[in-house]
Design a protein that fits this description.
alpha/beta; 2 domains; globular; Rossmann fold; four-stranded antiparallel sheet; six-stranded mixed sheet; Alpha-Beta Plaits; single chain
Length: 298
């Protein structure tokens, strides 16, 4: 289990992380969200032992993270950190040896992962000769080849097409089943919703929202109604509690303040020919924008 307890970090007078606490259990995928400059990268660096916090503690399975314990952590960075003149084999041997593995262990694990990602033919190719998507696969393999107990994923799907995204998703789920604790960070909210049961949103280094995604959606009262059929949008807009009515591909989306508005909307359209009337929880993207203020760079 990863425990982050009351960490605070200043850069000079600038407060980057403000009394941050959270836990990630074994086999749990935890979402850490925030706009650029919210403190995510600083938090990652503190967790990995690359930065010291001014206050607070970070432990992995009860032990303070130091130089030796970092061998139990894997990190997929948003910016690729591969040595492009090396071959895939050379690159993975280099990273594996840094994590204390023997060359024999590395080559065995490497072949398993290359086969899993269907790129066995690239074993002796230079990194610079690979597509961006295949470079991202190699970066992922380099982060997990030593079977880390904690894996940090920062925008892991960058440069991947849908087929390769699914391959990487399968690999992440496999690591989760083996008990790996995973921190997942992305601006693509659909991935967070798919992966993470629990999440935390940072704004200027401070927690503004934390908890189980299911509970967060239930507590966030605004909901959406999707309607297909004959709709008088002007009459809907006049209903108390209706925030907005929009149309996309012959389907109307009605944003409402809370569930109490649903019967009033249904009553208004009941006299028309309706083929769809569905009430949905708000998306994580909506909740994120509401909490962060919409002023983030995705």
């Amino acid at each position: 289990m990863l425990k982050v307890e009351h960490i605070t970090k200043y850069y000079g007078k600038n407060l980057a992380v403000d009394d941050l606490s959270f836990q990630v259990k074994e086999g749990e995928i935890f979402g850490l969200l925030g706009s650029n400059g919210a403190g995510k990268t600083t938090t990652f660096r503190i967790i990995m032992g690359l930065l010291d916090s001014n206050q607070g503690n970070v432990t992995l399975n009860g032990k303070k993270i130091d130089y030796h314990l970092t061998d139990e952590i894997g990190f997929v960075t948003e910016e690729r950190s591969l040595l492009t003149k090396l071959t895939v084999k050379e690159q993975l041997i280099y990273y594996g040896r840094l994590k204390g593995m023997t060359e024999e262990e590395i080559l065995k694990k490497m072949d398993i992962w290359l086969k899993k990602f269907e790129i066995t033919d690239y074993r002796d190719r230079k990194i610079k000769e690979l597509s961006k998507g295949n470079q991202q696969k190699i970066q992922f393999i380099a982060a997990v080849i030593h079977e880390p107990k904690l894996l940090i994923l920062d925008e892991p799907f960058t440069g991947l097409d849908p087929i390769n995204v699914q391959q990487l998703k399968n690999a992440i789920y496999e690591l989760q089943k083996k008990g790996c604790s995973i921190i997942f960070s992305s601006h693509q909210m659909e991935h967070i919703e798919q992966f993470c049961e629990k999440l935390l949103i940072l704004v200027k280094g401070k927690t503004v929202l934390e908890g189980y995604l299911k509970d967060i959606k239930e507590e966030y009262q605004k909901k959406n109604i999707f309607i297909r059929g004959e709709v008088d949008t002007k009459s809907l807009e006049q209903i108390e509690g209706v925030l907005e009515v929009s149309c996309n591909q012959n389907e109307y989306e009605v944003k409402i303040t809370d569930a109490s508005v649903v019967p009033r909307v249904f009553e208004k359209i009941s006299k028309y020919k309706i083929t769809k009337f569905v009430v949905e929880e708000p998306s994580l993207n909506e909740i994120f924008i509401a909490k962060v203020g919409g002023s983030y760079d995705a």
